[in-house]
Write a structure and sequence with these properties.
133 residues, alpha+beta, Lipocalin, 2 domains, 8-stranded antiparallel β-barrel, 1 helix, elongated
């Protein structure tokens, strides 16, 4: 027969386990989603980057450098910050690299007729989405 004390201890453990599961689910879930307008391949306007691109999809991000090396990563989270001007939005895509290190890809997005992205660390370089075939 289980004593009242042991039953209370078991209930406490179950409640703590349930709280832990809920917290983990909230931590693993993405807080923000990207607009479908952002999905696709983005290329820079500068000739130095003519062979480079990045691709954004709902669950992953791909980077290609001028040597042709392509790497893709699973997106773990997305942060969004509306800027004061009401037109530009700062997005930060969080992803893990092959060594399980957390990385960030931050950029400004302008959802005009010709969507434009400018990287946070290169705000003068314009990236435009490649037209869909």
């Amino acid at each position: 027969m289980i004593s009242h004390k042991e039953e209370n201890k078991r209930r406490t453990h179950l409640v703590l386990l349930a709280v832990l599961i809920i917290l983990l689910m909230g931590y693993c879930r993405k807080n923000t989603t990207l607009s479908e307008d952002m999905f696709g391949i983005w290329k820079a306007s500068d000739i130095k980057y003519k062979d480079s691109f990045f691709e954004i999809q709902e669950e992953f991000i791909v980077f290609s450098d001028k040597k042709g090396d392509i790497t893709n990563y699973s997106i773990t989270d997305v942060r969004k910050e509306d800027l004061n001007d009401g037109e530009w939005v700062l997005y930060t895509i969080l992803y893990q690299d092959k060594d399980f290190l957390r990385r960030e890809f931050s950029f400004y997005y302008h959802p005009s007729n010709e969507s434009v992205i400018m990287l946070k660390n290169q705000p003068t370089l314009v990236w435009k989405k490649e037209a869909a075939d």
